[in-house]
Amino acid sequence: MFESEVEKDEPWVDLKRRAFLVTSAAAVGGLAVWSWRKPRLAEATAPNEPPQEVTIVEFSDAGERLKTVHVPKVVKTEEEWRKQLTAGAFDITRHADTEIAYTGKYWNLHDKGLYRCICCDNALFSSETKFDSGTGWPSFWDPIAPENVRSIRDMSYGMIRTAVSCTECDAHLGHVFDDGPEPTHLRYCMNSASLRFVARKAT
């Protein structure tokens, strides 16, 4: 009787085994697709290959436009970025993470000044274009210079968005949307952890 019971169970065991294998393969495939679709924002230069040259506009801490320059892109290893940045800033700028709304230090800042990249000090935004978007993230209707930021197609999390990165070091900054105020109607929704604020000195 025992042998016959085993024989009866064998088709069911095989079916369960096949279902497990199919489910596992689907899970692995889904993870691969998710990883592939995550925005590639900080790819390092290949060893022994000179850094790519990029064009940015330099600004003084007072927000004065200085000159347009061609500079080598800032490229560092994961270990070097980890040593330089806090854990949160590393995850956001180097791996396109996002800080929780209303937790960043700049979302409600109204001081006059300049916002630079936390990774390379590239000038990114001015308080002159900052506005209260009601989203809990620092928002701007324009970058300080279009050359200093780059837009990247972001298909992560099942959405199609436009990610924004620093031209000089590829740091992930946030996303840009088309629901901002005049004159651009854009909303550069940035992560505070990607930025370093430089207050304008009183004259």
Description of the molecule:
The strands form 3 sheets. The chain has a 6-stranded antiparallel sheet. A 3-stranded antiparallel sheet has the order 4-3-11, with no helix packed on it. With 203 residues, the protein is α+β, with helices and mostly antiparallel strands. The chain is globular and about 45 Å long. Strand 1 and strand 2 form a beta hairpin. The longest helix has 36 residues. The protein contains 3 helices and 11 strands.
Question: What descriptive keywords fit this protein?
Answer:
6-stranded antiparallel beta sheet; alpha+beta; 27% strand; single chain; globular; 3 helices; 11 strands; 3-stranded antiparallel beta sheet; 203 residues
Range of strand content: 25-35%
> What is the strand arrangement across the widest sheet?
5-6-10-9-8-7
What radius of gyration results from the CA coordinates? 23 Å
Estimate percent helicity: 25-40%
Number of helices: 3
Separation of termini? Answer: 97 Å
Shape: globular
Largest sheet, strands/sense/barrel: 6 strands, antiparallel
Average residue pLDDT: 84
SSE series: HEEHHEEEEEEEEE
**Low confidence ranges:** 1-9, 18-38, 42-46
